[in-house]
Amino acid sequence: MMPPSVSLVKYDTPILVTKNLDKKTPRAKSLKGLQQISDCSVIPCPPPKDRPCGGEQKTNQQTEDILNSILPPREWTENGQLWIQHVSSTPATRLDVVNLQEELDRRLQQRQARETGICPVRRELYNQVFDELIRQVTINCAERGLLLLRVRDEIRMTIAAYQTLYESSVAFGMRKALQAEQGRADMERMIADLEQDKRDLERQVHELKTKCEHIEKRAAEQRQLEEKKHQEEIQFLKRNNQQLKAQLDGIMNPKK
C-alpha cells in the first residue's frame, strides 16, 4: 500500500508500528497467527502524550476515541514497514481556519477543479474540509461534532442517492438513444424502400402513359383511316347513285 495522499484534514506525525514485515520471525509468525484467528490487524497504540491527570485526561481520551471513530487512523506500508497516522487532537486556532481556507482555494486551483457541475476533485476537497471542520468542532464539543458527523453522513447518503439516480438516468438515456438509433436505422431503411417503390411506380406510370399515348395515336390514325374509307364509300355510292339515276332517266325518257 502506498503512502496516503496529502489531506486537508490535520493528522499527527506518522508512527512506525512494525518493521520488516517480510522477515519471518517467531514473534511475527505468532502475531500473524493471531491476526488470522481474529481476522483483524494487531496495531499497537501510539505512545501516550503528556496529558493532565484526572477528569481532564479522561475527557481527552474520550475525545480522541470519538475522533478515531469519526476519522479512522490511516495505515500504509512503506519499504516493508507498517505505519499508522492518527487524526490530530490539537485544537484549531483562528489562523488554522484561515490557512485551511487558503489551502482549499490553492488546491482547487492547482487541481483545476470545475466551479460548476459535477466535479469529483471539488467534491473530494470539500469533503476533506468538512472532515477537518468536524475534527475542530469535536475537540471543543464532542456532541456538536457527532451531530455534524450525522449531517455529513446524511449529505453523503443523499449525494450517493443522487449519483445512483444520475447513473441510472444516464443508462436509461443511453438505452433510449440506442433504441432511437435503431429506430432511426429502421426508419431510414423503410424510407429507402418506399422511395424505391415510388421510383418503380413512377416508372410504371411513365410506361403506361407512353403506352396510352401510342394507343391513342393508333386509335386516331385508325379513326382517320376509317373516316377516309367511309367518305370514299359515300362518294362511291353517290357516284353510283347518280349513274343509276341517269340510266333510269334514260330508260324512262328515251330520246326521240
Nutshell version of this structure?
By secondary structure, this protein is mainly α. 70% of the residues lie in helices and 5% in strands.
Question: Explain this structure to me?
Answer:
- The chain has a domain at 15-140.
- 70% of the residues lie in helices and 5% in strands.
- The protein has five helices and three strands.
- A three-stranded antiparallel β-sheet has the order 1-3-2, with no helix packed on it.
- A hairpin with a 2-residue loop joins strand 2 and strand 3 (81-85).
- The longest helix has 111 residues, at 142-252.
- The model is unreliable at 23-51 (pLDDT under 50).
- Residues 177-247 form a coiled coil.
- Keywords: Coiled coil, Dynein, Motor protein.
- Belongs to the inner dynein arm light chain family.
- One of its GO terms (cellular component) is dynein complex.
